[in-house]
Amino acid sequence: MQRIFSEHLTRPVKSLDGIWRITAHDENGTSVQAGVPGVWERIPALAGFRGTADYTRKVHTDHDANLLLRFGGVSHTAKVFWDGSMIGRHYNAFTGFSILLPAVPGGEHELRVEVDDSYGPHSALHVPNDYMTYGGINRPVEIHEVRQAYIERMAFHSEEEEDGSFTAHVRVFVHAVDPLKEASLNVSIAGSSASGVVPDLPRGESADVNLRLHIPHVRKWDLGQGNLYCLQARLIVNGDETDDLIDRVGFRTIRISGEDILLNGRKVRIKGFNRHEDHGQFGCSLPVEAMMDDLQMILDMGGNSVRTCHYPNDPRFLDLCDELGILVWEENHARALPEQVFHSELFAEQCAACNEEMIGQHVNHPSIYVWGLLNECESDTEFGRKVYATQIAQLRELDPTRPISYASCRFFKDICLDLVDIASFNIYPGWYTDEKPADLADRLFRWMDGNGAENKPILITEIGAGAVSGFHDPLHHAKWSEERQCEILREQLSDIHRIQRCSGTYIWQFADVRVAEEWAKNRPKCMNNKGVVDQFRVPKMAYATVREIYSALGDTETGDGDRGRFPVSRPDRA
Ligand code: ADA
To answer: How far is the CA of 133 from the centre of ligand 1 (A)?
Structure first.
């Protein structure tokens, strides 16, 4: 399942998850059976393999049909073959893709995915980095049966009216497999519905239909209140329901007002965690149950937000954040890319595709309150400014309803802060520098007021310290000891959350994660050890420190969020 709920009542959908055969293009032609979704690093025979491997399975169809293959993610490049012919390709482990197969005869077929996780000139975003690029089909695979036309996706946003009602704007994208005539759409949500005509379409063309609905009464989505509604679209052709699509949306308002980030009109205080899609047992392919475990720990520590460092996340994780009422900073795929990569044509092309897919696939999640881009890239040069400006323009075009920001480490030199709605900084006082957190914050906030970020909200998008899990030094509190991590985090969080001007923090980071071998020299165990829990989610001493501090802080300035552990209500399902 690509989501944690059924997206279709009419359209037949079958999961292709399960046991596939993996055959590595290595000197031995290593061939094993293994689970999909999954990463081959979990398989002893392929634990250290980096390169290309074939994932193969049989697919049986019992009648002629138009088929749509849907991949949630393949890490990091997929070439897809059907009965030996190449039918599509995709780059980037962190966004999904679909391939249409018209008029497939019923019978036994072979599906082969050539998966490549190698580094090199073909990959600008997956590079040796302070996180791991795994190999495999890391997210779910489905096969859909569609008729002469189908609903590709929907884009939803809503506006609150003076009287407290909402207006829902729904854009429905339709694709014609065969020439399409006499088609219409019906959309319903929260007891309201609307219809629209789909223009006649030649084979292979798409069109979008915009519908507007008035919703008199809603239960707003909010922190700890994951009130969700089913948005259902039906495609009617010659009076026959040909296809359908269901999504889940929420009604809430996000607004920037001076130095404040307002959720439903109240200034929020972000008590966040940076979270990589990485786990000691599952690699980057976490089952949804493990995702929920992570979120329950984050809630238990008084957290109310997650930053999807440094790439778009699994839609099922975003579904859980929607349900739990957890705010999400989602960002495109980039982490401190080296100049020769950042300046390449390939980077521009691969990043633009990621932006398009990230917003096209995730725009309906109410939990996402800000789009982030280009973590710690070159925001201090004229060339870098052009790149940031181009991508920010693209993000605003794709979604004009959400604020935009980037996490900078180039403060005191940064020249792009005027381009974004929120000024965000990654700082490590007490870990990488000896400066007191309050002193650094004071210097930084004073500097930014004269450099494009005056009167803007501020987020500290990374702050933290390392500890090798199980290393204790109760007397000296040496760096890398759990005691020292507690000490540094306590001072960092206490200092920063005393500053009214700052809208909050994202601790770096929730869990220890594996990093590329090239980073081993200053990453003990070849891991980024700044997690509050280890890679298997065993809490370090810092877990209790963070819980004490975050839980004592409210979610909003009106202080009515002093919840610590959320009274998580089950969301309404209209
Ligand atoms: C940077 C970067 C993170 C991580 C962190 C660290 O801020 O954005 O991905 O590398 O530093 O652990 O040093």
So the answer is: 16
